[in-house]
Amino acid sequence: MEDHSIKVNFCSSEKEKPKSDQLQFGRVFTDHMFIMDYSAPLGWHDARIVPYQPLSIDPSAMVFHYGQSVFEGLKAYLNPDGEAQLFRPEKNLQRINRSNDRLCIPPIDEEYALKAIKQLVAIDKDWIPEAEGTSLYIRPFIISTEAFLGVAPSHNYKFIVILSPVGAYYKEGINPVKIAVENKYVRAVAGGTGEAKTGGNYASSLKAQELVANSGYAQVLWLDGVEKKYIEEVGSMNVFFKIDGEVVTPKLNGSILEGVTRNSVIELLKYWDIPVSERRISMEDLRQAHQEGRLEEAFGSGTAAVISPIGQLTWNDTDLIINNHETGPVAKRLYDTLTGIQYGKVEDPFGWIEKVREPSKVKS
Amino acid sequence: MEDHSIKVNFCSSEKEKPKSDQLQFGRVFTDHMFIMDYSAPLGWHDARIVPYQPLSIDPSAMVFHYGQSVFEGLKAYLNPDGEAQLFRPEKNLQRINRSNDRLCIPPIDEEYALKAIKQLVAIDKDWIPEAEGTSLYIRPFIISTEAFLGVAPSHNYKFIVILSPVGAYYKEGINPVKIAVENKYVRAVAGGTGEAKTGGNYASSLKAQELVANSGYAQVLWLDGVEKKYIEEVGSMNVFFKIDGEVVTPKLNGSILEGVTRNSVIELLKYWDIPVSERRISMEDLRQAHQEGRLEEAFGSGTAAVISPIGQLTWNDTDLIINNHETGPVAKRLYDTLTGIQYGKVEDPFGWIEKVREPSKVKS
Ligand SMILES: Cc1ncc(COP(=O)(O)O)c(C=O)c1O
Ligand SMILES: Cc1ncc(COP(=O)(O)O)c(C=O)c1O
Predict the structure, then answer these.
(1) Which residue among B25, B56, B69 sits closest to A64, beta carbon to beta carbon?
(2) FRET partner for B283 with CA separation of 20 to 30 A, picked from A258, A296, A298, B207?
C-alpha cells in the first residue's frame, strides 16, 4: 500500500471522561477512531481518523455470518514525564498479519498501521488515565464487510482502531486465582485457528468459562484438543510454571496464541539468567511435580493483567495448591519489571518502548 | 417470550428483481427483513419487519471481536400451484437453539421465529423466482451487539432474517465434483463448536478451501481433528458413501453439523428399505473399499445443493475415482425425490412441507 496520509475529522464536542477510580475494562471509548477500507481493486485505502461512531454495515456482511475477522490488543501508558508510550506495538502488528494469513484476510502495512495507532493515541491522549495501574487499551481489528452469503474470503474489509481507558487490573493488589482444568471443551486444535487472534476462538471459549465461573473459578486451563493431556493456555493468557527452579511454558504448537507478554517474560528471564524453557507439559507431569513439592509457582501472562498468579489448579477431583495461594517471587519480579518498563519507571534495556509524539508535532 | 405481534413497516419503493437466469447465490436481497432485539432485562422484544437496510452497530460490539454469532440456512420454494412452501423449517429453528446453547446465546421461541419467517416470506413472496431449480434462500442469524470488549457472553443480541433469491445450483445438470482430502487444516474438533452453526467454523475453513481450489478441487473432505483418520464432512455439507450396497454417513460425534438434508436422506433411505447406517468411517477403510471395487457412490448433502455427487477423492497421492465420475443411482434418486418434495411435485409422505400463507391472509 502507498503511504497515503491520514485524513482527520475531529469531533465537534468531546465526551465526558470517566473518573480514574471508576474505570472498568472496555466499556467506554474515546472521542475518535481510525478506519481504513479494503476493496479488491484498490487495496487498503481511505485511511481516516473520525469521531467515534457506529458502523453502518449490510446485514449480509460476511463478518456476521462466517466470522472472518481478526483483532489485537495493546495499551498506551503515561510515563512519569506525562508522555504516552506503547509497549512492543510492532509485535501486535506482526501478529495481526499472521492472523490475517490464517483467515485469508489481505495483510496490512505494519509500519503504516503503527503510524495510524500513534496518531490516534496522540489525538486522544487526554483520555489516557493517570492513576496507578490505569492505561488506554488499544483495539485494532479487521472485519469482512462484503455483502455476500457465499463461504469464501470477502473482497471487502475494514481495519479499525478504537481506544478505551481502562482501570487497574489489580485494584486490591495481586491475588492469585483459582483455575479449573477443562476436560470437556476445547479452545483450539492443531490445524485450527488457535494461533490466530480471531473471534471464533473466543466464541468457542465462552461456554467453558461460564460453567467454571458458576463453580467459583476465575478461568479454565485449556488442554490440547487432541489428547486432552497437554497444557496450552489459561483463559485468554499464556501460562508459565516454575518447576525445580526452572520456568517452563508450553511450546508453540499451532494451537497456542503467541503472546507478546509471553515473549517478554521469556526474554526477561533469560536476561536475569533464570532457566526458562518452552516445551510440552502434561497435566500429569504437573500433578506429579506438585505432589513431590517441585511446583513452585504458576502464572498467566497477557496484556490485560500482565502477570496473573495461579493459587490453585483443580483437575478432576484434585486441588493443586500452589505456593500456599501466594504470589511467588518470580511472578512478582516479572510483574514489577514489566509494568515498570511499560510505565517508564524502570529502565528498558530491550528497546521495547515506543513513544507517541504530541498531537501538535504529528505530521499527517 | 410473549407472543407479541410483529410490526410491519413496508418499504416505500420496491427494488428491481433480478432475472431468473441471472441469479447467483446470496448477492441480492429482497425488499424486507425481520429483526428482533434481545436485552438482558427485556428478553427478546420489538419484533419487526422493516425495509432491507444496513445495520448500525457500535464498533466495540462483541460480534466484531469475539465471534459470538449463529446462523441458519433454509429455502422457500414455489409449488406448481404458485404457493410458497418451506422444507422442515422447524429443524432449522431447533438447530439454531442448539447452536445458541453452545455459544451462550439466549434461546429464541421456535414457533414465534417460524411465524416471523413465514410472514416475511409471504410479504416478499414475489421475490421467489419461478425458473426450474431456483428458490428463495432464507438466512436467519443472531449477532451479539453489546458494546463491550470483555470476553464474556453479550447481554444484547439481534435476531435477523434476510432473504435472497438464488439460482439453480446445477445450471448444466448435476456434475460430480473432485474433492481433496484435507490432511493439515481442521474444521472442528470434539469439544469445539463443530456441531454448532457459528461463524468461527466457516472462518476456519477458508484457508483449506482456498488452497485446494487453486489445485482444481471443488472442496475439501474434512477429517477428524484428533487422529486425522476419520471422515467428518465435505466442504459445508454432510457426506455419504455407498459401500457394498449399504449407504453410510459419519456418526454425529460433536464436531459434525447435523444437517437437515442429512437427516432427510437417512429417512428417505429407510423408507425405501435401502440399508443405511451412521458410523465412524476412516479414510483407510474407504480407500480399501475403493480398491476392492466396493465403493459404489459418494455424495454430499446440504440445503444449497441438496445432493452433490463426488466423482473423485484425492488423498495424498492417491486418486479414488468413484462410479466413473458419474452420478450414481442412489444420489440421483435422492436428489429427484428431495427436490420433488421441496417443489411440491412429488408426494410428501413425511409431512416435511410447511406452506406459507398469502400476505393478505397473514394475521399479524
Ligand atoms: C488466547 C490468548 N492467549 C494469550 C494471550 C496473551 O497475549 P498478549 O501477551 O499478546 O496479550 C491473549 C491475549 O491477549 C489471548 O487472547
Ligand atoms: C458445515 C455444514 N455441514 C453440513 C451442512 C448441511 O446442513 P443442511 O442439510 O441443514 O443444509 C451445512 C450447511 O448447511 C454446513 O454448513
Answers:
(1) B69
(2) B207
